[in-house]
What does this fold into?
Amino acid sequence: MDAPDYFHFFGLDPRLTLDSADLETRFYRLSRQLHPDRHAQAAPAERDRALEASAILNDAYRTLRDPVARAEYQLKRQGFEPTKEVPAELLDEVFDLNLALEELRAGDASVRPRLQAARDRFRALLAESDAALERLFAAYDQAPGPATLAPIRAALNRRKYISNLVQQVESESPS
Amino acid sequence: MSSVFQIDFGGSQPEPVVGIDLGTTNSLVAYMDLTGPKVVPGQDGGHLVPSVVHAGDGAPLVGNSARQMLIDDPERTVYSVKRLMGRGLADVEKEAALFPFRFAEGSESVLRLRLGDRTFTPPEISAFILLQLKRNAEAFLGRAVNRAVVTVPAYFNDAQRQATKDAGRIAGLDVLRLVNEPTAASLAYGLDKRRDGIVAVYDLGGGTFDISILKIRDGIFEVLATNGDTRLGGDDIDNHLLRIALQDIHSEWGLDLARNGSAVQLLRRAVIEAKERLSTVPLTTIQLDYQGRSYRRELTRDQFEALVRGIVDRTLGPCRNCLKDAGVAVEQIDEVVLVGGSTRIPLVRQAVENLFRARPHTELNPEEVVALGAAVQAGILTGDVPDKLLLDVTPLSLGIETLGGIASKIVHRNSTIPASATEVFTTAVDGQRNVLIHVVQGERELVKDCRSLARFDLQGIDPLPAGAPRIEVRFLIDANGILSVTARDQRTGKEHSVEVKPSYGLTDDQVEAMIRDSIERAAEDFSERQVREARLEADTILAAIEKARAGEAWLEMTAQEAAAIEQALNELLTVYCSDDHALIRAHIEKLNQATLHLAEIMMNTAVRDALKGTQI
It folds into this structure.
């Protein structure tokens, strides 16, 4: 079985800006058609097909409803593999953060304000990169092609890095 | 065109699909009729069948009769078997101390309960309960029942779900669907009729706790997230009170009753009754009379709440995590539904109200709502309930073991099911013929901190240099939340056979063997049982008439009425020994009709007597 085209499955063009309410309506309508519970009285072969189709539908919805997963999906299909580069401009701040976290673990509570400041800063950066992604998505939808996808690859790498930082600082110093 | 109420005598109705709540403490079976879901009454008329099984010398007892055996023959009586489903010996060490039965050798991956000189696995014990429910439904509906929807805690893992399905197979029930208990409850409430919105279902049962958050829109019940604890429930409260009472008695009498099965079960019943009373009154007494000695301990609701607050508070963490996973703020919750007997405890209700800042729904009996919802789900499967659809999620992330004992997540928790993931595997050494994939469930990073689910052995790989084979493995979680794995060679397109070695639970062959061995099932003959049950019913009415003959009411009837009863009674006695259950039932009904006036007179007499009795 070849990998199904999630956009096609939903009757959509491969666009990165999606109306989530419309996507949900399509998801519910397709679920009513495909879900195994709708085929419980059918022959085993049809039940298997419903199970398979419904699994693909759910996988597709999970991917497309989340902007980041949606973009990753499209990038992968177009041959852009994820990379692990560290955004150079953040290196100093990350160094500071790790220092503060180590001091906290060593029992020094006085670094808390520094951690909170770092947390707020990274959260702001995350919001910033989300906004940047939205602009890049719109640009891609205007003119789909490698030229508009490449900056999205870079922006997603950066966003992933920042998102990991936010998670790290949130788990170490709960608000 | 035929009317909706026209009864189909042709027997062409499709076989019913019932809904079963296989609970830790009590089990129920429900069905759909034209007006909605209904609970099937048991042999004694009550709705709840205690989930207790006594495996003595004769046929196993289930329900209230088995409950009595907890005291008379505790070593061969099993309760709360649901807590043992899909578990290994190491999982239950802590709770095993208070169970009256012992585990047999070889219980590491599947528990084997030693009851007298026989051993049973938890699915076999559960199968006895399912069989009883199946029979109750057949007696009540007058039709064979072979298909069911069975509920499980939302937080049940794959092994626990598989064990429940195995129990159904052993009982001769085709389990069309496992449905999560909180989700079932939301169906029973018909919340979709009121309005679209976000609903939280808080389900604290006898042995398990679940919290689910759903979005309801146009008849679609979409679970956003679920969380819980499969070893947290009313049982924990009972055990806590029981330990305290045992200590009390030890210090008062200088006698340790903990090893005395009967005494422990008597005391267990006493603390459960005290717990239940404290839901309605502020003060009660735990009482035990045992071998001429008597234990009394007063317990106020305040004291009780102080004792169990820790247990109740353990439900709050999962609730908060569930909100977070659902991406829902407390303020967005439109309705809260309470499920499970333990939600009758005022402290629990208060904790839920405080957390969700909403007064929870309690209109439906919290002990029946899950079975009712299972019946609605059965209706969805048969097409009788065309407007609703449930989209549930998998409660735990699915991972595969990778280098260094890391659990690499391939399906994340709270993914809508059915869900799937595809991974490509290869070989590590030249000529390798098979690949072993270790699948785990859980949220932790390391395999050792997750729950081992199974090892899948991909066989028949062509001998090639290391890294050359490309085997595409598809992991599929079905609508029941149960995993299956298929594999194929990317190069040749050839399907590989996959041998499943479950870490906890029975293999397919073991279940098949149990089905073959099940003497209960061999002796099972629906029509024979119907005849037996019709005769039992005849016995009941005949006995009632004999009793009435001695009473005043009999004299108040006209001679014709008395003669009609005599005639109908004689006719029933004539057909009593026939093998035609319909004929026996027809004459029972005829006798019933003949005694209508007698029953009325007796009722009036009873009311008159009762009124006299209250006059001072």
User: Anything to note?
Assistant: Confidence is low (pLDDT under 50) at residues 1-12 of chain B. The CA atoms of residues 488 and 495 of chain B lie 4 Å apart. Chain B touches chain A at residues 176-177, 217-218, 220, 222, 377, 380-383, 389-391, 415-421, 476-479 (CB under 8 Å).
